[in-house]
Design goal:
By secondary structure, the chain is an alpha/beta fold. The chain has two domains: about 1-155, VC0802-like (2-Layer Sandwich), CATH 3.30.2130.30; about 175-215 and about 250-375, Vaccinia Virus protein VP39 (Rossmann fold, 3-Layer(aba) Sandwich). The protein has eleven helices and 15 strands. It has helices spanning about 15-20, 45-50, 70-75, 80-85, 105-125, 175-185, 200-210, 235-245, 260-275, 315-330, 345-350; strands at about 1-5, 25-30, 35-40, 55-65, 90-100, 130, 135-145, 145-155, 195, 255-260, 280-285, 300-305, 335-340, 355-360, 365-375. It has an eight-stranded mixed beta sheet with strand order 2-3-1-4-8-7-5-6. The protein has a seven-stranded mixed beta sheet with strand order 11-10-9-12-13-15-14. The longest helix is centred in the N-terminal third of the chain and has 18 residues, at about 105-125. The structure holds S-adenosylmethionine.
């Protein structure tokens, strides 16, 4: 057993904890944007394949003290790199560095890479290739003050990309943020999931993948773990096979994605196609108020309207937020309504009491997921004209 650090974006840890535990691992430490577990190298295959909310899965190798870049080089050179990497490997080094002797934070990457390559050259007579692309082996350095830690990054390309979004539309949500938002709604996957203003379809596609039990990594054929000596192709094939057999073929609920812009629906449909979930989502070009709302199995209705920071203007959006409040009140009784927005002032125009506000970051913007319980029975009784 070894230490494995799984990183995520700020505010995502609670959802990552939930996912990691549901895969059968015990959390040994929790940080603002990471969790730690104990596991084997082969466990990283499962983690990389299944985690929807993570950024990276880092397999710990060594902690040491380094006062400056020369120290770092010497300590990294001492490590048995020939055990982890073969000389044919393509190598990338990434880092988070906060050391008083380092002005250029890319410099430690170069020192680390030099030490690894020099060590492998000494031991095998061959020099591995290196570069910035996350296509092969990836070493991660965390260096804060004088304390350094070295990890094998088993992910490579960051896990926040779930591999289906070939066609972005305006202001798309990052895939792992969309997954975290859905976890935060506590949607039970046995009730309908309605997503007006779907844009490039991220929320609807993530919901479909969750309901189908389709792991986000199933669309990927390259992870960094494949580029280390310890990689066992047979075990990886078995992990993938098990994941494939666990994918549902049929859904008894509706996932509905609508948008007023035909180009958005075109992009969302193409992305859902790439994700292999297009047959499970009903798409429609329409104003959010025209979104079909099934009256059985009432579940979650979620909108991510523009919020004036990157796109439309605040004033014009007030009417939209007010319209969403009216739509929730009049058409969505029995559902739990959610609005994901980065603008508290606009959210006030919804005109409904938010039962809960959950904080997230969308890039650098602090956003809130506002929850509205849309109770049945408060609808005004239809006028009796008789
Ligand atoms: C911020 S984007 C949603 C991004 C989406 N969550 C994603 O991940 O791609 C807002 C979307 O609302 C749509 N929209 C704006 N006004 C609308 C309206 N009145 N009815 C329906 N959709 C609308 C826009 O076309 C845009 O696609």
């Amino acid at each position: 057993m070894n230490k494995i650090l799984i990183t995520c974006a700020n505010k995502i840890t609670p959802y990552l904890v939930q996912e990691v535990e549901s895969l059968g691992f015990e959390i040994t430490a929790e940080y603002p944007s990471a969790v730690e577990i104990q596991g084997t190298f082969h466990d990283t295959y499962t983690l990389n394949l299944y985690l929807r909310t993570a950024n990276r899965v880092l397999y710990w190798l060594k902690d040491f003290v380094a006062f400056n870049a020369e120290d770092l080089y010497a300590k990294v050179l001492e490590m048995p790199w020939e055990k982890y990497l073969n000389p044919e490997s393509y190598l990338t080094v990434d880092s988070i560095v906060d050391n008083p002797t380092i002005a250029n934070t890319l410099y430690p990457n170069v020192k680390c890479k030099d030490a690894i390559v020099d060590r492998i050259m000494q031991k095998t007579g061959k020099r591995p290739n290196s570069g910035p692309e996350p296509k092969g082996a990836m070493i991660f350095l965390y260096w804060k003050n004088n304390d350094a830690s070295i990890y094998l990054d088993t992910s490579g390309e960051v896990l926040s990309k779930h591999g289906y979004r070939r066609q972005p539309f305006q202001a798309p949500l990052q895939e792992n943020l969309a997954a975290s938002i859905i976890y935060a709604t506590q949607w039970d996957k046995n009730t309908h999931f309605i997503n007006p203003m779907t844009g490039s379809g991220t929320l609807a596609i993530e919901a479909a993948m969750m309901a189908l039990n389709k792991p986000p990594g199933i669309l990927r054929n390259n992870f960094a773990f494949m580029h280390y000596n310890e990689f066992d192709k047979k075990i990886w094939s078995a992990v993938r096979r098990k994941a494939n057999t666990g994918i549902e073929k049929k859904l008894d609920i509706q996932i509905i994605a609508t948008d007023i812009n035909p180009k958005a629906i075109q992009a969302a449909q193409a992305n859902a196609e790439t994700a292999g979930v297009s047959q499970y989502i009903q798409f429609k070009v329409c104003d959010f108020r025209e979104t079909p709302i099934p009256q059985d199995k009432k579940g979650v209705i979620i909108l991510n309207p523009e919020y004036g920071m990157r796109l439309g203007k605040e004033d014009e959006l007030k009417a939209i937020y007010q319209g969403i409040g009216d739509f929730f009140k009049q058409e969505c009784k029995g559902y739990t309504g959610y609005i994901f927005t980065g603008n508290d002032l606009l959210a006030k125009h919804v005109g409904l009491h938010a039962n809960k506000k959950i904080s997230f970051y969308n890039a650098k913007i602090e956003c809130k997921l506002m929850k509205y319980e849309l109770y049945e029975g408060t609808k005004k009784a239809p006028k009796n004209n008789t």
